[in-house]
Amino acid sequence: MNFDYNTTRSHLILSEYGRNVQNMVKYICELPTIEERNKYAQAVIDLMGFLQPHLRDVADFKHKLWDHLHIISGYQIDVESPYPKPLPENAFKKPQPLPYPQQRITYKHYGKTVENLIEKAMGEQNPEQKKLMVQGIANFMKMAYVTWNKDNVSDDTIIKDLKYLSGGLLSLDEGVNLAKVEFRAQNPRQNNNNRGRTNNNNNNGKNRQNNNNNNNRRPNNNNKPKY
Length: 227
Description:
single chain; mainly alpha; 52% helix; elongated; DUF4290 domain-containing protein; DUF4290
């Protein structure tokens, strides 16, 4: 008895479509007329779309299916495709490396955005506009600080960091109060548990009140006449 193992079969080009689709594409490539190849190719495209329904959310998913059809055939299928035929060399073309920033961040809890804002504020020529920008930057710095640190931060710390980041060129007026920011737990389970406790406490209070009312409604047997 001969067994057909995957190791003895041909290479599966796109495994997400399965071997049956690959065999169908191979059969289409061997058809003699272009009319037959177009007819069966359209049927295989519909089947491929049914096997990969998530591609329907992708822009031009039909284009992607036709590209996969050519890839499965080893770029050998001869059909009238509504889209340009993909080139084999593009499949091995490496993407351009992303230019990740290599700049050093002085205070990571503030981020690079704060440093860019400070640099822009230092170049502002309008005194009133510059004052508003410095006030907004300081408020944003306080919010960013509290986001990454559970403890509250004093205004003096923000003013000191702002002065250090700007090289002493930006400062706030004396006695200014920054926006009040409080740390809030971002755990939804904790909030749900607190809600459940509140509801339970309310329900317990209602139950006690109902029991007291029921006790008051009970008849007083001591007032019954004695015979």
